[in-house]
Amino acid sequence: FLRFSFCSASLSLFFCFPDFCHGVEIQQPSSVFGRDGDPSVTLTCKQDDSQFFYMFWYRQQGGGRMELLVYSPGALSANVEAPFNGSKYSASRPTVLASSLQVQAVEAADAAVYFCASSRAQCVRNYQAYFGEGTRLTVLGEIR
């Protein structure tokens, strides 16, 4: 799995092997399909360690930089981050171990890879965010 430091100006990449470091396992589907004009599409994420209170959703379009969409400090709390619009994106966090991201009014511009991440702390140098492998949202054309 991959571990990223997310508090510095740039992301630092670490490779962890199960015998040498402990982290959280992030599970998210590899792909989700939506159709242009759909009212919404939902992306899901699960993690396996209740000590990892913080969860995040990032969007990466066209291999560009990762953009923070959602910050969640714990169960029952999830905040869409500026400059993203709360009417376009919403998130839920029913438990510490699960989160979902909803994309409203699906359109071609929503096609991207969406990464779920989790951390023990919000921004402490000794804690890294552990990322899932990402969910690729593919937006298909309207049915005519």
From TrEMBL:
GO terms for cellular component: plasma membrane. It holds the Pfam family V-set. Residues 18-116 form the Ig-like domain. It comes from the Eukaryota. InterPro entries: Ig-like_dom (IPR007110), Ig-like_dom_sf (IPR036179), Ig-like_fold (IPR013783), Ig_sub (IPR003599), Ig_V-set (IPR013106), TCR_beta_variable (IPR050413). SUPFAM superfamilies: Immunoglobulin. GO terms for biological process: cell surface receptor signaling pathway; immune system process. Residues 1-23 form the signal peptide. Keywords: Immunity, Signal. This is Ig-like domain-containing protein.
